[in-house]
Amino acid sequence: MNWITNYVRPTINSLFSRREVPENLWTKCPECGTMLFHRELADNLNVCTNCDHHMAISARERLVSIFDGGVFVEVAVPEPVADPLHFRDQKKYTDRIKEARKKTGEKDAMLVAEGEMGRTPVVVAVQDFSFMGGSMSMYVGNAIVAAAERAIALGRPLILFSAAGGARMQEGILGLMQMPRTTIAVQMLKEAGLPYVVVLTHPTTGGVTASYAMLGDVQIAEPNALIGFAGARVIEQTIGEKLPEGFQRAEYLLDHGMLDRVTKRTDLKDELTTILRMLMGLEAPIKGDLPAPEIVAEAVEEAPKETPAKDAK
Prior knowledge:
Elements: H1 3-16, E1 26-28, E2 35-37, H2 38-43, H3 59-66, E3 73-74, H4 93-104, E4 110-117, E5 120-127, H5 138-154, E6 158-164, H6 172-176, H7 178-191, E7 196-204, E8 218-221, H8 232-239, H9 250-255, E9 261-262, H10 268-279
Parallel strand pairs: 5-6, 6-7, 7-8, 8-9
Antiparallel strand pairs: 1-2, 3-4, 4-5
Helix pairs in contact: 5-7
Cofactor: Zn(2+)
GO biological process, one term: fatty acid biosynthetic process
Catalytic activity: N(6)-carboxybiotinyl-L-lysyl-[protein] + acetyl-CoA = N(6)-biotinyl-L-lysyl-[protein] + malonyl-CoA
């Protein structure tokens, strides 16, 4: 046995070999190209610290960022019939659902939760674009109905974050029927006198835009979010004209009266809290608490008692 070959050389190689660098430590901003450290990016809610470009954020991360302390309780959503049309294209619809669930860890394209946001009790529904493009399915319809019913039962406002490419084609007319269903759910909130606020995120298109995403009492969007019904190319081919720059972007829609606000993701929680408390007739939100005064035992001393003077002899 050659000890130089078997021991010395491997030891030297291990000392001077290049250490493996974990993957996903850095993310390149698709807008400005800046390399962003993953912790810095997460702390800024996936918003580029250089150019303020808003990158994708998962539905669960969205809930954590909205609720106080990241604490919330999920609202149960009734399970619809699985693959009622027995749809198949290149893959079975059931297989696509399994893949999406494995990829995202979620049941479907919408999460519903309840909790407090800026000490204001709310119900929040969040659409997850990473789950089959956030497509509107029977499950999504059930989720919005469940969110509305829960909000009415608790007397709380409902906030909905939209992100979708439209109705889910694998469910055909059953997916499209969620448009009137969700519209009725929104009407139930209005009849109960409860605020319904929509935050449109990138992208929000198709049947989602034609239904619950544009029915809010207040319409807010994240910067540069794509919002529309049909695609820009289809519109250009239909009308035979060149569309203006920035068409279907949040800022363009704000200028033309389709939105009330365009708000950065990092400012959304404070803005939503202020708006909802105004609509609910509550006091102004509390931005922070003063620390409780420290009680130091040594600082509280009893006054020295006077000793009686001794009688003079």
